[in-house]
Every structure is written in C-alpha cells, then in structure tokens.
Here is the input.
Amino acid sequence: MSDLVWTADLNTGIDVIDGQHQQIVDFINRLNAVRNTGDTQEISSIIDGLVDYTLLHFAFEEALLAEAGYAALSGHQKVHELFAKRIQNYQERFASGESIADELHGLLSHWLISHIRNDDAAYASAVRGPMLELVEETHEDSWLARLLHRIFGASKH
Here is the structure.
C-alpha cells in the first residue's frame, strides 16, 4: 500500500485542524514505511505516538466544536469515541505480540480520509465562521493558545 497524500479536498478551511489532520497522515505514512521491517520497537513507537496524537486531536476538535456551538457535537464525539476504542484495541493487540501493522495501516488510511470528507466536512461547513474567529485570537492568553498549550504542550505558532 502506498503513502497517503494530502490533497486540497481534505482541507476543512480551518488551518489548525488541517494541520493536525496532516500530522495524523504523517503518522500513518511513517507506519507504512516501517510496517514490514520487523522493527517492533519503531512500530510500537509510531503506534503509541499515533494513538496519543489522535486522542489529543479529538479532544481539541471537540473543545473547539463545543466553543463554536456545534449542534451535532454529541454525534461527532460518539464517532471519535468508537474509533478511539478500535485503535486502542489494535494497540493492545500489538502489545500482546500480535502483528497488526498492516491491518491497522489499512484501517487508518481508509477511516481518516472518510472521516475528514464526511464527518469533519459536515461540521466545517456548519461552524467554520465561529471556529475561524476562535482560532484567529492570536495573543498568548487567548482561549486557543491556552487550549493548545494544555492539550499539545505548545502554542499555535
């Protein structure tokens, strides 16, 4: 299977979200690059990083959606919750010695693109205006700066 390529049709129009999605694509591509090497330490590191980053992204996205007043937030959270359980199950299977890298790569590749094009596109069109106002607050003590620091340990810059 080849690497995922970020294309313009995957953009939500919200740069901070698009950047996080691109980071997830990078993790998926790193998994693709090492999945057949047999380097279980590297595969484990990538899987752990991918799971952690994805869960942080979900928390950030949900907080931003709540702040923007997204009416269908609970449904979006449920999609995230179900997916998080699936990838944590893969993480546990890998930790117990099962070879899941190919299966996980396939799931992630298809799920992420589908999720962005469908679920995330639905919220983007509904709340793009309020979300852009929220993310445009650039001072260090802004709501976004505090949230990014709390979740990702860094500022948005």
Summary: The radius of gyration is 16 Å.
